[in-house]
Structures are given as structure tokens and as C-alpha cells.
Amino acid sequence: MKLIMFSVREDEKTAIKEWEVRHNVEVTTVSEDLSLANVDLVEGFDGLSIQQVTELPEEAIYKKLAAFGIKQISLRTAGYDIINAEMAKKYKLTITNVPAYSPRSVAELVLTQTMRLIRHFPTLEAHMAHGDFRWRGLVAREIHTLTIGIIGAGKIGSTAARLFHALGAEVIAYDPVRREELEDILTYKDSQREVLEAADVISLHVPLDPSTLQIIDAEALSQMKPEAYIINAARGPVVDTQALIKALDSGKIAGAALDTLTNEQGIFNQDVRNQDLPEDFKLLMEMDNVLITPHIGFYTTEAVRNMVDIGLDNTVAILLNGTSKNEVLL
Ligand code: NAD
Questions:
Q1: Would 327 be classed as within a structural domain?
Q2: Which of 61, 170, 255, 312 has the fewest CB atoms lying closer than 10 Å?
């Protein structure tokens, strides 16, 4: 069996080598994203794994893959919106994803961001960069005195809830789906509004779909307490960036930590020192109550290893058994 993996980063290579040895399967790695320009590289391989934000709309890609005898595309990501579903179905390509590579990874980032925000790190660091080491009256709160509001208590949201609960914080959540097993660690509220009104820190963990687009808009932000912080490690478009900038600028909320931003593609995980950033990025970067991280929530050794292992396991499962537990419904 010969597999080919696209978009392979240096940090994935150890896990790939170890998987090859464990399974006695040869894996060829390519650093570029799969595209019409390089799809011919797949000829002669049995299985394919990709991981990219670049979409694959062209029919010719799927047609060529099918002509090369490829039966599947294994994504090493949770999202699979880059796939042209119609074409994948037409050319009988089974698509698999990695639904959970490490909820703990994102949850720990949220905990880190919360700690940094409540300790006023962004403001202190901004002033210290200019030689001003004063405390500026920025008294911090201790985490066990806080109410943490989770919007979307699924895999990541519930993991974050467990971490905060373990530190003594009160955790409240809004999620249309209630899970009995979480009722010892959080209190469900009947609406997003109730969570926004009561929490000191709001953490967003909803999937991005038409129903969650800009669920945090000007109205939602106006429901938050002025001393509250908001954290978005879900997907950028869940928040209306312009409304957030206004709320931060006018002191309607105390601060924000953003691991995802609308239009982050081409900026996060890129060197853009010689490019002009979009206006909203610039404004947020200049604010001393905002923490921006370049979509690193998933980026831990454990998560990277899981993405590689589960992605390759899915490939082999389809090739050997024609099915995988991580097949996605297109
Ligand atoms: P999940 O499907 O396990 O959980 C999502 C939860 O949100 C579900 O319980 C669902 O019922 C709930 N939900 C849906 N609509 C809602 C709404 N309007 N209000 C409240 N709750 C709602 O997903 P997950 O694996 O926990 O991922 C959550 C988010 O994290 C996704 O947006 C994902 O893209 C993002 N993510 C980010 C990173 C990163 O690196 N920052 C990494 C992985 C995942």
C-alpha cells in the first residue's frame, strides 16, 4: 500500500515516520496543498490525505483522482467544507475527517487566554514595551470568583468547562443540546442572552454554520457586563468584528482574546511583515485590551499526532474495509 500526504508540515513528520513503522506502510509527503496544478503527483498511489484551507472546487481534480484509482480523500482536519461535495459523490470518493484531535488543546488555550486577560497582561505588556512599569490600578480577579460562560458546550466547550470548574469557577452554558453528564460541572441557561448577561468571561465554542454566523453581534455584545471578556477560539465569522471593535473601543466590554478572525486566511501562520494588514486587524492589534493568537488553539504535540494518526488510519480503513468510522456525510 502506498499513501501520499499533501500540506505536510515539518512538525508532522515525526508522527508520520512513526505511523509508517507501526503499520509498515510507505507514506510520501508533499509540502504543498493539493491543487489542479499538482494532482498528477497522486498517480501510482493507493490512498490520499490532505489538510488545507484552500478549496478544491474543480471537477478535473476529482476526475483525475478517480482515473488514478483513488477511492477516498482523508482530511486531517475536522472541517471538510473545502471539498466539492457534488464532485466527490460523482467520482465516488469517500471523504473522512478527524472530528476531534484534541479538545484539550483548544480548551487549554482558552484557559491561558482567560488567565492573561484577567491579569491584564495585554495592557501591562503594552505599557512596559515603552518603559512604563506602573501597576496602573489594574487589580486582578482570582479565577475561583469568576462566572465563566460557555456558548456551545460540545467537545471543546465541555472540556474548557471542566478545566474552569476544577479551578473553582462557576460555569454556566448555553447549548440547544443538553448533556446530562455535564450537569455536575455547569449550569445550563435557557438562552445565550442569560449567559452573556451573567458571565465574567464568555468563551465561544459553536461550529460555524449559517445559524451561528455573527451570533455575537452588537446586540449580543451590549448584553455583556462592561467588566467581562470575550474569547473566540471557534471560528472568526461567529463574531461581528466591526461590532466587537466598537464594543471594545467604547468600553462596553473589558477585552477580548481572539484565536480566530474573519478573513484570517493569508494572514495567520504567514509572514506578512511586508504587507498592509486589513483595517480591522490593525485596529484590533493596536488595542491594549485585545489578545490575538494566530489560530494556534489546535497546535499541540498531542493534537498534531492525532491528526496524522487518525487521518492515516482513516485512509487505511477505507482502502482495506471500504468504510471508516470517520466518514462524513456530504
Ligand atoms: P462540537 O460539535 O463538539 O460542539 C459544538 C457545540 O455547539 C454542540 O454541542 C452544539 O450543540 C453547540 N451549538 C450549535 N449551535 C449553537 C448555538 N447557536 N448556541 C450554542 N451552542 C450551539 O464542536 P467542537 O469540536 O467542540 O468545536 C467547536 C468549535 O471549535 C468549532 O467552531 C471548531 O471549528 C472550533 N475549533 C477551533 C480550533 C482552533 O484551533 N482554534 C481547533 C478545533 C476546533
A1: no
A2: 170
